[in-house]
Design brief:
The protein is of the alpha/beta class. It folds into two domains: 2-140 and 301-330, Quinone Oxidoreductase, Chain A, domain 1 (Alpha-Beta Complex), CATH 3.90.180.10; 153-278, 3-Layer(aba) Sandwich (Rossmann fold). 23% of the residues lie in helices and 26% in strands. The strands form four sheets. Strands 3, 4, 5, 8, 9, 16 and 17 form a seven-stranded mixed sheet that branches. The protein has a six-stranded parallel sheet with strand order 12-11-10-13-14-15, with helices on both faces. A two-stranded antiparallel sheet has the order 1-2. Strand 13, helix 6 (236-244) and strand 14 (246-254) form a beta-alpha-beta unit. The chain is globular.
Length: 332
């Protein structure tokens, strides 16, 4: 099978991924092998490829938003059959027995492993997934539309939950890439009034088209104090901008696995029971709830297709801000 391999992290300008012919992996106990149809491209992939996140194994096949068809089943697997459609997200496996796993917080498991970081991911024609972590997908959507839901969509949904936002409240979204464009649809469906802060005038226009009550630049204040905010850009200054716009008792949820830094700020911005919360991964329950909601709304995804051989180009376009929607590798 063909796969994009990362052997050494370096700038995406140096094309660190190489497409190679490798042997298709055989599923072990409790595993499925999927013949892949599509894999969406995530900023976390870029951070792994460029070394912002330390490489856990080499060579590595990146990618953690994959859609495929079950083609081989390992010993001990129940509930899946050849020909079933399945999705793969960031969470690859957990211990199942720690204090986090047994209290509905498996996203915090200290022994968790992650797709496209600890386990080979979806920049390939086939991949393995633990059967208990394979996700059943809505039948109505095509693979290209489904793939972006499996990370940006789910983590955006969890971010809304962590922020504590509720119907009728004012929500700020800081940054308006792929994840935020899905989160706004969920928030509007909930009945929230959404304010979007992004430097791009095109993204501001798109946010209004998706239901934002207001959209402006980072140096502008939303027209009303926010009950909650979610930041999507991996930049600490954005976190402070959200905090300054927050009403007392509100929460800023930081949707980032890697943040450059959080600059020093006045305690007055945090006082009166404001909160800063990080968002770490997501649980399988989050994914199931979100996928059901995505089909109910239904969510609209905007994608830009690339061939598997163009993975470096897709990541470069992501870094340069040249994408319209989510880059998706279409796999044959």
């Amino acid at each position: 099978m063909l796969a994009q391999l990362l052997r050494r992290p370096r700038s995406i300008d140096l094309a660190p991924l190489t497409i190679e012919e490798i042997e298709a992996p055989a599923p072990g106990p409790g595993e499925l092998r999927l013949r892949l149809e599509a894999c969406a491209v995530c900023r976390t992939d870029l951070q792994i490829v460029e070394g912002d996140l330390a490489l856990h194994r080499a060579p590595l096949v990146p990618g953690h938003q994959a859609v495929g068809i079950v083609e081989a089943i390992g010993p001990g697997v129940e509930g899946w059959a050849a020909g079933d459609r399945a999705g793969v997200g960031w969470l690859g496996d957990v211990c199942g027995s720690c204090e986090y796993c047994t209290t509905g917080r498996e996203n915090l498991c200290e022994s968790a492993t992650f797709t496209g970081w600890d386990r080979d991911g979806g920049y390939a024609q086939a991949m393995l997934v633990r059967a208990g972590f394979a996700l059943r997908l809505p039948a109505a959507l095509e693979a290209e539309a489904l793939a972006p839901l499996l990370c940006g969509g789910v983590i955006g949904y969890r971010s809304l939950r962590v922020s504590g936002i509720g119907p009728g409240q004012r929500l700020g979204l800081y940054g308006f890439g792929a994840s935020a464009s899905l989160a706004i649809q969920v928030a509007v469906h909930m009945g929230c009034e959404v304010f979007v802060v992004t430097r791009s005038t095109e993204e501001q226009r798109r946010a209004r088209a998706l239901g934002a009550a207001w959209a402006g630049a980072l140096d502008e204040q939303p027209p009303a104090r926010l009950h909650a905010a979610v930041t999507f850009a991996p930049v600490g200054e954005v976190v402070l901008a959200a905090l300054r716009a927050l009403a007392p008792g509100g929460t800023v949820a930081i949707n980032a696995i890697h943040l450059d830094r959080v600059p020093e700020f006045s305690y007055d911005w945090l006082w009166r029971e404001r909160s800063l919360r990080s968002v770490a991964n997501f649980t399988r329950a989050d994914a199931r709830e979100f996928l059901a909601l995505a089909a109910e709304i239904p969510l609209r995804t905007e994608t830009q297709p690339f061939a598997l051989a163009q993975a470096n180009e897709a990541l470069r376009a992501l870094r340069q801000g040249e994408l319209r929607g989510t880059a998706v590798l279409m796999i044959e």
